[in-house]
Specification:
Layout: E1 3-10, H1 15-18, E2 25-33, E3 39-46, H2 50-58, E4 63-72, E5 75-82, H3 84-87, H4 92-97, E6 101-108, E7 111-118, H5 121-129, E8 137-145, H6 159-170, H7 182-189, H8 193-212
Helix pairs in contact: 6-8, 7-8
Length: about 220
Amino acid sequence: MSLIGEFVLDTPILQQALSSKPGVAADIELIQADESGVIQMFVWISGTSTEEFAAAVDDDPTVTNLTPLVDVNDKRLYHLEYTEYGHSFSAYPAVVELGAMNLDMRWENGVWQIRMRFPNRASLQEYYKQDLDVDVTRHLTAVYSEGGELPGESFGLTGPQREILTQALDEGYFEVPRRTTLSELAEGMGISAQAASVRLRRAHRTLVQNSLNGADSE
């Protein structure tokens, strides 16, 4: 059974260029590799001019060869190529190898948010655990089937654990930079910061373990 996984991804790919100006948004149209293995990105950009974005890309070590393609409303489609440095952060080869597919990948509020389809739970587990050569952090925020959440599954979360995970996600705790602090989460839930810290760490560990370990039984 195919699964949908949602992640908050902390990767330097295009991050410097997109962070150069507040309000810049990106929506990935396609990522693919050419015959020589160079990874190419087609991305819709809004919130900045072509000149501003070109200057920002020049300063970004992960991408190169920017080409504007077409304008639609307030967005512009660009073609970019990953540099050799950018290649070292890319999960694209693993995505292809695992038979996974990017359904939605966008940059909002200073962070990459990704929704992917995996052919089975084992491929999701492998993607999440893959050992990249550099520090790329993935936060798994949701796993569900095509029709919604997996039947009967709560991923072992208690009610308070689900509540703090949901609140942390909604209020931008997993974003980079964070839009809220642990103390603010705690205050909103009426608990101490220490209690919130313990609850959030246990909730995240439970979600990841119960989302991924099911592969062993398939």
